[in-house]
Amino acid sequence: MWSKPRPAYSAGQLVDCGTFQLRLKVNSRSRRISLRLDNKTGEAVVSAPRLRDLPQAVDFALSRSDWIAGHLAERPVMQAFAPEMDIPYRGGYLRLRQASGRAAARREGDVLSAGGDGAAYHRRIERFLRLEAQRFAEQHTELYAQQLGVSGVRVSLIDPKGRWGSCTPGRKAIRYSWRLIMAPDEVFAYVCAHEAAHLRHPHHGPDFWAEVEALFGAYAPKRQWLRSEGVGLFVYAAPQDGPSSTQD
Fold first, then answer.
1. Which of 11, 55, 139, 218 has its CA 20 to 30 A from that of 97?
2. Phi/psi of residue 36, nearest 5 degrees
3. Which range, of 86-100, 112-126, 153-167, averages the lowest pLDDT?
């Protein structure tokens, strides 16, 4: 009996599922189909072990439409940094204030001031947070790398869609989301230990998690914080000045 051929899907494809957008991925290291929400873009992301498994992955995502819709409804509204806003910072909060002219962001106690309006103001606040995140990441990565007997690790910042960090052991390069500076210090430190552990263990097997615990201690509560509270760190985005603007 003739049957209708299934759609041909490709890795990276964005599928319009009506109530949500579905991003397709292939992860050869995975043993099963997985589904998650991208904190930054609001897309649902489904991963399959092989390219030929993508039709099954799409079916799986469609079967979880209610779950996806429910979590999308809970997703915080995006907002730009603006004066008189309280933003999370290293386990506490900073009150944003307006400064005159084009003044760079400057912190005094629990107050962070910057000049400019709209996107310019947002960029100055974000630049301050990125500098602080770089310092924190470098210090803690060096600490954990020394415990592993590794030197010359290069640290940089990124703004990934859903990951907090990544490690390329062969290059001794680790990248972190700058947004981690808005998390409690112990959460950021856990991510540094997590990525440093990948310098020895480029996987998430038992040996890797044992290394993380040896470096950091009890990591489970910090990992859970990222899962339950981390989405709130992705709500800040620069406003668009006009049709030709891009996010800084």
1. 139
2. -150, 170
3. 153-167
Which position has the token pair 């799409």? 58
Residue 124 exposure: Cα atoms within 13 Å on the Cβ side:
23
- Residue 67 to residues 36, 72, 89, 137, Cα–Cα distance (Å): 10, 9, 31, 35
pLDDT tens for each residue of 80-103: 999 999 999 999 999 999 999 999
Give kind and range of the element (H or E) at residue 209: helix 206-216
Q: Which two tokens stand for residue 15?
A: 């599928």
Amino acid identity of 57? A
Which pairing describes strands 106-108 and 92-98: parallel, antiparallel, or unpaired? unpaired
Largest CA distance in the chain: 75
pTM for the whole structure:
0.75
- The predicted pLDDT at position 246 comes to 25
CA distance 223 to 228: 9
Q: Are 197 and 180 in contact (CB under 8 A)?
A: no
In CATH terms, is domain 86-234 a member of 3.30.2010.10?
yes
Domain boundaries, the chain: 14-73, 86-234
